[in-house]
Structure of ABC transporter ATP-binding protein:
Amino acid sequence: MRNHKNAGIVLESRNLTKRFGGLVAVGNMDLKVHRGEISSLIGPNGAGKTTFFNVVTGIYRPDAGDIRFNGAPIDGKKPHQIVELGIARTFQNIRLFPNMTCLENVMAGQHCRGAAGVWASIARTAGQRTEEKRIAAIAAQRLEQVGLGRLKDELAKNIPYGNQRMLEIGRALATNPRLLVLDEPSSGLNDRESEDLIVFLKNLIKEDLTILIIEHDMNVVMGISDWVTVMDEGRKIAEGTPETVYNDQKVIEAYLGRDDEDEDSGTERA
Ligand SMILES: Nc1ncnc2c1ncn2[C@@H]1O[C@H](COP(=O)(O)OP(=O)(O)OP(=O)(O)O)[C@@H](O)[C@H]1O
């Protein structure tokens, strides 16, 4: 049985389906994310994980099924509305503004949340200057939190890759989310950076935050997750504690492919 840290369900999808033409990228996905936990979504390439995230964060409308955030339906809402409701995300391929400073990148995250929008803020009308200062102060705090305070005036394109990943997380945090959705945050990080990321994320959930993460690195998955859901070919094929899932035959087969390879090599999947 699952031993929940907290009984509340932050995010729930029921029968969620997204098709691309004849391809069922996500099919009848039921998923529950519990408050204050780190839930991982794993599965082989093309399993439908990012598509699931894209539906949750409003990039795609689902073809069927529904999604609830804190009990209220969110399917069909626009990405900025979903941010306003308290879901922030990062992307598999880093999406920063390369020619803006680190501080400006994090500030942009908050502007996306505000009613005025980023373009109005860039225009810097008199009435917005105070707001601008407030936003800069919050952004500076978030930069410190992700360990990049000293780089605030550097252009995003000039900082190391691992720092860019943390900058994206800082930008997401600046929207003050209740649920942080991270698409392969350890991708491209070295072992040391991945370990630091695990510690960082574990500390984050102590702040009453919930995390849903797509992750390929099994060391990260095992080290971080309270609960793991496994997708393959658009479907949920398993869920449970990291240990349960890691030893699940269906999961081992999904990672190895469905040919009759050496069965002992199941422990090598990652
Ligand atoms: N915009 C799109 N148009 C058509 N097909 C798409 C689109 N996005 C994803 N797909 C297809 O949907 C399926 C699921 O893709 P998705 O990117 O969600 O998988 P994934 O589990 O995130 O994979 P990976 O781990 O490689 O990122 C794949 O077959 C993919 O080719």
Q: What stands out?
A: Residues 129-145 form the longest helix (17 residues). The pocket of adenosine-5'-triphosphate is lined by residues 20, 23, 25, 43, 45-51, 92 (CB under 6 Å). The CA atoms of residues 19 and 76 lie 15 Å apart. The chain has two domains: 1-86+177-270, 95-176.
